[in-house]
Specification:
The complex is a heterodimer of chains A (about 350) and B (about 270).
Chain A lengths: L1 E3 L2 E3 L2 E5 L12 H17 L8 H5 L2 H11 L5 E4 L15 H10 L4 E3 L8 H15 L3 E5 L15 H13 L3 E5 L15 H9 L4 E4 L7 H8 L5 E4 L6 H4 L1 H14 L5 E2 L9 H10 L14 H15 L30 H4 L1
Chain B lengths: L7 H15 L3 E2 L4 E2 H4 L2 E6 L4 E6 L8 H16 L6 E6 L5 H9 L3 H6 L8 H26 L20 H13 L21 H29 L34 H7 L1
Parallel strand pairs in B: 4-5
Antiparallel strand pairs in B: 1-2, 3-4
Classes of the chains: A alpha/beta (about 350), B mainly alpha (about 270).
Chain lengths: ~350, ~270
């Protein structure tokens, strides 16, 4: 929990990882390039005081994770969203055993989501059944840019993927977190295309689809799809740290999300260990839309509370102290959520 | 960017030719020349007409289709130089560097380079981003108009014609983007249209969608610049300032940057955002 100026915020970090990119786990040049790329993200967007050494960045371990999130970072509950990356790392990038053991040890603080890859076919379906039982899964993290043998990406609307979603439905895995990386298949099309999210969200209305990084670098495509689908949500992983070096861009991202999907469908995350939650929570609570961006209404305290934790808590049935809860906004399920407050010149038209 | 030693005037002139030739190569996603983005890592030329250019990108995992487009467009632009006898273009430090560089060396084309991962060509991809570039340019002009005329009704933007726009960078940019997607350029043409020239039924919604596109392109263009600077220290020397989407933090990398707060008129403000 974080408190400031008489307000208290329940914090759910909805996208964290316990990864291992130490040299002994790196399988090939791509594994090296992947962690180098993460570190550049970290170094480029963090405040100077929050930049780690490269060595510290390669692996954190459970103890440091618990400290960074729960002792220093104000987090009440965090959700593992592991990327497998078996083609790049010998034992995978996200550390399944270690992270799930940590979650089992601290069930009040941690939820472990796992992943699947429809290219594993029938055997993968059996594995998903076993994983659901082993981890008590409520959610999965899917990375469509994962490499797999000769294939360098898959689509959510591939027929085999539908079999997996049907199984998710059967097993009660309701929260599907999607990371659209640079998916190489089909190479002719935009690698970050989110059109497949539209198809699955329409066909599986009883599942929640949380698009991580709010579709970045395709914010506009994400907003347009998400506004039409009541079961599509936006995860702020990677978008959050822009609050520091690019606050106007961050303001516009938040302003667009509030307009297109509304305050009940946006989830905070630090994307740990890409970044740490402490400074992100502090800066977000202090944040306001710059006054000259008159196309957006000012951000309210209630909106901040929902984004920082209440929305994810609701999706994951995480208990929130009664005094910190808030009701849903009276907003439409689809279409623009606050058109009257959200445009330059619109006031003149009202 | 490094140049090889040699007779200074000749080599310098040829290297300059190379750079000017590369000015026409665009990053389709960011809608900017690769020379402005700092993606040209080195240029080597010799008097016998040999050219070797190395390109670099903000991350190893930038989309390979864009990486290929920029690399092969660079090779095409350099091969067209009348004096160029031998052209080598290499993409450095990308996860597909080996594949792309081999394809470029063999002039294998898109399908020859990527094999089964390539279906037809990258024309649809280029067109998608030409349309987005047009959408963003259109939004910049119309939002500037709204800020300049705060009492203007958003609905009335549907009636704005090209000749109603104030002359300046944003209008020039819109005209160029209209030309690229094949829209008419005469003053009586409506501004708020899609790539096919069709006006929207819902004007405020169309403006909002266009705005999200503009925010996305500006945000990506600055983030990519920042990542390149982090990945290749010193590369800021090769980057040209981008006014659209600029923020206070950019001042550190750009001596010509003018902070928003020091500007007074609404119109000037708009052009620096």
């Amino acid at each position: 929990m974080y408190s400031k100026d008489g307000e208290s915020y329940f914090i759910v970090d909805a996208h964290i990882a316990l990864w291992d990119a130490r040299p002994e786990n790196i399988r090939n040049v791509q594994g090296q390039q992947f962690i180098d790329c993460f570190y550049d993200y970290h170094a480029n967007l963090s405040p100077e005081s929050e930049v780690w050494t490269k060595e510290a960045y390669l692996y954190q371990g459970g103890e440091r994770l618990m400290k960074d999130l729960f002792e220093d970072g104000y987090v009440d509950h965090a959700i593992f969203q592991p990327a497998h990356l078996g083609e790049f790392y010998h034992r995978g990038f996200g550390q399944t055993d270690e992270a799930s053991a940590l979650a089992a040890q601290h069930p009040d603080k941690l939820t472990y989501n796992h992943n699947f890859d429809p290219r594993n076919g029938e055997a993968g379906l059996d594995q998903l059944r076993a994983d659901a039982e082993r981890f008590g899964l409520k959610g999965v993290k899917l990375y469509t840019a994962e490499w797999h043998g000769d294939s360098r990406g898959w689509r959510l609307d591939d027929p085999m993927a539908y079999r997996y979603f049907e199984l998710c439905r059967e097993l009660g895995i309701t929260n599907i977190h999607i990371h659209k990386g640079p998916t190489i298949r089909p190479l002719d099309r935009d690698a970050f295309d989110v059109a497949d999210v539209d198809h699955v969200a329409t066909d599986f209305t009883d599942l929640n689809f949380i698009v991580e990084h709010v579709g970045l670098p395709r914010l506009e495509d994400f907003c347009w799809i998400a506004t039409q689908e009541p079961n599509v949500h936006g995860g702020l992983a990677v978008a959050m740290p822009f609050i520091h070096t690019r606050p106007r861009y961050f303001a516009q991202i938040i302003g667009e999300l509030l307009y297109w999907i509304g305050e009940d469908r946006i989830q905070f995350s630090s994307d740990y260990a890409l970044w740490t939650p402490r400074w992100l929570v502090e800066q977000f609570v202090d944040f306001q839309i710059p006054e000259d961006l008159t196309e957006y209404a000012p951000l309210t305290t209630a909106q901040k509370k929902k984004i920082l934790g209440l929305n994810a808590a609701k999706m994951y049935d995480i208990e929130v102290p009664a005094e910190l809860r808030l009701p849903d906004a009276d907003e439409p399920e689809t279409g623009p959520r606050q058109p009257e407050a959200a445009d330059l010149g619109a006031m003149a038209a009202v | 960017m490094t140049l090889t030693a040699g007779p200074p005037t000749v080599v310098a002139r040829l290297a300059d030719d190379v750079r000017r030739a590369l000015d026409v190569v665009m990053d389709p996603e960011l809608d900017e020349p690769i020379t402005d983005l700092g993606f040209v890592r080195s240029v080597e030329v010799d008097e016998a007409g040999g050219v070797e250019v190395h390109l670099r990108l903000p991350t190893s995992f930038c989309s390979p289709n864009f990486a290929y487009l920029m690399s092969s467009d660079s090779k095409d632009a350099l091969t067209a130089l009348p004096w160029a006898a031998r052209v080598v273009v290499q993409l450095d430090d990308h996860h597909d560097s080996d594949k792309i560089n081999a394809g470029l060396a063999a002039d294998a084309g898109y399908r020859g380079t990527f094999g089964q991962e390539a279906e037809q060509d990258l024309e649809e991809l280029r067109e998608t981003f030409r349309r987005k570039a047009h959408t963003a340019a259109m939004e910049r002009c119309l939002t500037a108009l709204l800020r300049a005329e705060p009492d203007r009704d958003v609905e009335s933007l549907g009636d704005v014609r090209l000749s109603d726009l104030a002359p300046g960078q944003h209008t020039d940019a819109l005209v160029r983007r209209r030309e690229a997607v094949g829209l008419p350029l005469d003053g009586s043409s409506p501004v708020l249209v899609d790539h096919a020239g069709i006006p929207p039924d819902d004007v405020p919604m169309a403006l909002r969608r266009a705005r999200s596109t503009r925010i996305s392109i500006d945000g990506n263009a600055h983030f990519c610049r920042g990542l390149l600077r982090t990945r290749y220290p010193g590369s800021e020397e090769d980057q040209v300032h981008r006014a659209d989407g600029a923020e206070a933090a950019d001042e550190a990398y750009d001596p010509t940057f003018i902070a928003l707060t020091t500007l007074t008129t609404a119109q000037t403000k708009e052009t620096t955002r």
